[in-house]
Amino acid sequence: MTDSAEQQEQVHLDGVIGKIKVAQQVASEDIATAARDRKDIERAFGEVHLNTGSYEGMTDTAMSLRAQQQMLDERQNSWQHATQRLDVLQKLEQTPYFARIDFQEGPTGKPETIYIGLGSFADSPDHFLIYDWRAPISSIYYDGGLGDITYQTPDGPQTVDVKLKRQFQIKDGVIVTMFDTDEVVGDSMLMEALGNASDTKMKSIVTTIQKEQNQIIRDTNSDLLFVQGAAGSGKTAAVLQRVAWLLYRYRGNLTAGQVVLFSPNQLFNDYINQVLPELGEQNMVQMTYLQYTNRRLPKIQVETLQQRFEATTDDQFRAVNTLKGSLNYFNVVTEYANHLEQADMRFRDIKFRDQVFISKEKIAEIYYSFNENYHLANRLSATREELIKILNRRISTEIRDKWVEEAVQNLTREEVDTMFGDQPREFDSQDKEYRFLARQIVMKAFKPVQLAISRSRYLNINAQYAHFLRHVPAMLDLSAQGISEAQWQASVEATLSGYRNHQLSLADTSAYLYLYDMMTGKKGEKAIRFVFIDEVQDYSAFQLAFLKFSFPRAKFTLLGDLNQAIFTQENSRTLLSELSTMFDPEKTRVVQLTKSYRSTQQITDFTKALLVDGEQITAFNRAGNKPIVSVAPTQSAQEQRLLTQLSANDQAHETTAIIGKTLAACEAVADQLKAAGVKATLIRTENQRLVPGTLIVPAYLAKGLEFDAVIVWDASKKVYYDESERQLLYTICSRAMHQLTLLATGELTPLMDRVPAALYTRETVTA
Ligand SMILES: Nc1ncnc2c1ncn2[C@@H]1O[C@H](COP(=O)(O)OP(=O)(O)OP(=O)(O)O)[C@@H](O)[C@H]1O
């Protein structure tokens, strides 16, 4: 490449930036105009006189208010649109684009040149100076090198002959480097991107999206897209890009509020919440499964992440919990709920002033009076109608009661005025006026009853759930699950007594809510169009089936690494086969990501050796130090070693996370560091924020995060002794980007036995 090529590109860049600045000016003026218009309308709003003297007057007022509101909404929209536009333009001014592609469509097509950036920019309706990275044509940048490349358009596949692929690094409007490449996405660019230090916030990967990741990002056909990828293979990164892509692809028909991401914990939500804004989009709805379920049961304390992780796992508990997480159990709940159409629905009396108003027996009689064509949802709504009729009859008779008459007579002028509200007041007789007021008084008194009916409070979900649990042995062969009937009944009693103390396990919460939704005929949240579930290996099949039921119109993207199952362990292996029965196989796509980008080659080689079948994982070729495994004879020697490692990491400008197995272990480390005068932040709960500097994090909160340097505290035999902890240790070690240290006291964990000695530096600390 000649100097002049670079000069020409800089001239082109300057021209584009000049035009972006002009467009910024226009957008700023649009914002000001929209804001001014809005003020004017708001002022006019205040001047609309509320004419409530006559019925016509009220209608006129209402109409003019509505028209004003509409104008206000329009101005609000154009204000928002212009603000978003300005935001994108400001980003573009710094780095307008990162790639140039020259191509030709067919042998006779004319040669074209496009530039690709974070957003599109045109100086006239048909003249694009920059194409959005999400535009169909931009796909050729991610999907291939030079020559014929096919990309998908809304009208079907298109092939073009790519003649030139040029990548740029532009900083503050100046080309820092540029090079031509015939690779998919030049490794040097990726190397540069990956060489950066870790941050408390994840960044977008728009300039270096890999071909396999691009497949995930641009998928539109699958109802279920399952991404199985090694630690650090960019599952989370790709999926955030996918959200941005979907918002672009379905602009006008899809909003960020119709996309939900279920993430492993709140800390992780915080970690990723800058990526979409960086891409000029709004964040999707983000929550954890626990938050999703707990918000529906505010009075119940659903088992937290820590409780779940540190729960006792005796075999009996494990078998019951495994059963409660299975698809089989989900089907049992469904079957049980359907059976309630015939019998066994539990009701509660509807009370009025502490007296039984409609008895549960009466409600049951009504509920079961409809024929078998009435299913759960319409049976309930038919019952509701009957109950409302009973209430209305009672209101009509109650009107004549003495207390009501007295109440009407005692009404003050103001009370009468509020009761009439916007109602016309002309009555042809005094009696009619009296009846109107009396009815209002009675209806107000019966409001709690009306609410109890409309909110189905006469359903007794607690009794129903207890009945269901006791009924399970009749519906399922427990012995096939390795559970005796006595064990099951003991677990039922434990669940119910926990419930009386307002506590419920996550597995029971899911079943409880699903049963409730079935009983009340809820059909889920239809507005949600895309659901993403990160770290899906930690979900049970029951939870996934429940989410599918809860979001019936959504397409699902599930991301997981079966090697990082820290809650469900071996169950996660059956998850894929259970999933395949939930979704149409024709509309299911499974993508494997095997290349790990997070860590250096040395760390990836080490972590994959920890796994029993980690062969498939390949490292991105980036060199670093071998992991250090240090065994000290005493606890205090291990503490000393921790201090020297921390200061070595500090000197190398690597931010360290010390990852302990439990919160208690992390607290102990935090105390030691404090005593030694070393500054570090202990992350106790998922509601904390990640802050710069050394962190101490319990294992179950480190999911999905990454750090420059990781110190595993502590990798002794007494801490990690069981085969079932292999995946946990793998998950922890794979958080490290550049530097990994495992510290142990006494004997090293036997989980290290399978790691070849050549893959790490072993140290023995002397006392
Ligand atoms: N195409 C890419 N270009 C640049 N960086 C990338 C790319 N893909 C992944 N990365 C980086 O690699 C790191 C790991 O990515 P990410 O956290 O998405 O992986 P993951 O598969 O979700 O990992 P885990 O399962 O371990 O949580 C991140 O720092 C991410 O920015």
UniProtKB/TrEMBL annotation:
Keyword Nucleotide-binding in record: yes
Keywords from the named record: ATP-binding, Helicase, Hydrolase, Nucleotide-binding
Recorded superkingdom: Bacteria
Segments forming a coiled coil: none
Keyword ATP-binding: yes
Signal peptide feature range: none
PROSITE patterns: UVRD_HELICASE_ATP_BIND (PS51198)
Binding, ATP: G229, A230, A231, G232, S233, G234, K235, T236
Any one Gene Ontology molecular-function term assigned to this protein's record: helicase activity
Domain UvrD-like helicase ATP-binding residues, every copy: 208-600
NCBIfam families per record: HelD_BACSU
Entry protein name: DNA helicase
